[in-house]
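User: Run a structure prediction on this.
Assistant: Running it now.
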Amino acid sequence: MLGTLVITSLILSSFAAPAAAPTTSVPTEKITLDIRTINGSGCPAGTATAAADVAPDNTSFTVYYKNFKARAGDGAPATDFRKNCQINVLVHVPQGFTYAIASVNYRGFAHLENGAKALEQANYYFTGTSPTARIAHPLNGPFHGAWEMTDTADVLVYAPCAEERNLNINAELRVNADAAAPNSLSYIEMDSEHGSVDTIYHFSWKRC
C-alpha cells in the first residue's frame, strides 16, 4: 500500500473501577498543563523530544513527539525495533471539575517493506491507579505513508476531585523486518516534524 491512511478503532480496558456518568459541561477557564517528566528509549531524559498544547475549547490536548521512531532491517541497531516514551503530565483543572481520558487519536508515518510488521500501543493511568491494558494497533507491509489509529474508553475513570494526580502516558512503537529481506529497512514513527503527525487526547469532563 502506498499513501494509504489506516484507521483502527479499538476499546481501551478500563482503569480500576467505573465512575459516575459525566456531564456535558466543559470548564470555561483556560486549562493548562505541565509535562513533569519525559523518559524512555524513544525520548531519552534531558532531550527536547515532546511538547503538549491544550485545545482552545478545553476539550483535548495534543502531544507532539520528536524523533520517536522504531526501525528494523538494513543498518538499524538491534535495539531499535522497539521504542517507548513515557510522559508524566499534570493537568491543572479548575475548581469544581475533574476529567477522564475518553479517547485518543494517534497519527504517524511508516515505511514497511513486504513482509514487515509494525504496531503502536499505549496505556494511561493516574498516579496511584492501575494502568490500562495495552492494545496493539498492527500495521502490515508493504506500506508507505501516513497512518491514523484511535482508542476509545469503554469505562471512564476520573481523576479524584480536589486532588492533583499526574497523568502517565506510556506509548510504544515496534517494527519487525522480514527475515527474507535483510537488506531492506522498515520503520514506524510518531514525529511531529512530518506535518500533522501528533497524538490527541480527548477529555471527558465531570463536575465534582
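Confidence is low (pLDDT under 50) at residues 1-23.
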